[in-house]
Write a structure and sequence with these properties.
Elements lengths: L3 H8 L13 H15 L1 H4 L6 H9 L20 E4 L2 E3 L2 H10 L7 E5 L5 H9 L2 E6 L2 H13 L5 E5 L12 E6 L8 H5 L1 E12 L5 E8 L5 E8 L14
Parallel strand pairs: 3-4, 3-6, 4-5, 6-7
Antiparallel strand pairs: 1-2, 7-8, 8-9
Length: 243
Amino acid sequence: MRSAPYIAAILTLGVCACYDADPNRTEAMLSEISSMARFSVDYTGVSTIDQSVISALRRVDRSEFVPNEQRRFAFANQPLEIGHGQTISQPFIVALMTHVLALESRDRVLEIGTGSGYQAAILGELVYDVYTIEIVEPLAKEADSRLKRLGYENVSVRIGDGWFGWPEKAPFDKIMVTAVAPKLPPELISQLKIGGKMVLPVGDYDGYQELVLVEKMSETKLDRRVILPVRFVPMTGEAAQFD
């Protein structure tokens, strides 16, 4: 495996792109995602993002999910600040994390880290129900209002500590965590169905992090695969005590 700095270079391709004046800015973003998938296949094992995921990315207007001052960069292939020390993930990472979960239309999915609601909207385009938790109250309220305005009736937003999941709605077919955890959260594992998958970044808040795909084979056995080195904002709340 190549070094993390090389991966960091991969994940910042396109950071200077600005598509505000491009009528086909979404297509330009999707083209960069496809190119990056081919370029990073030696790490991820993913040469092509599933067309259902690409279609969902095409339908969701990323500019709806970024602050006004960031809208001119909304379709650049880079993370953007959304306030409160949080970010909206890079489109390639959104596409990759969504792809590796192998979502099915009847899935019930838990997302940890709602942020502005962009990833929840992508999931909402693809599955039956999405339950998403955000620990930062203003972000959660804004995301809930935004998702309702955009018509995502199958997405439920909760204010709370994602480390503990959403036990009343468990079990889940798939779980996605969009902030780095110091270890696999045991409550989330317990809320995942047998045969279900979870994707999350794991590692040091200020050091090495890996995007990991976990499949729950039984109540006592997990299959764990590292996808690639990444950089995410930290999971706060209960998770911070383990860092």
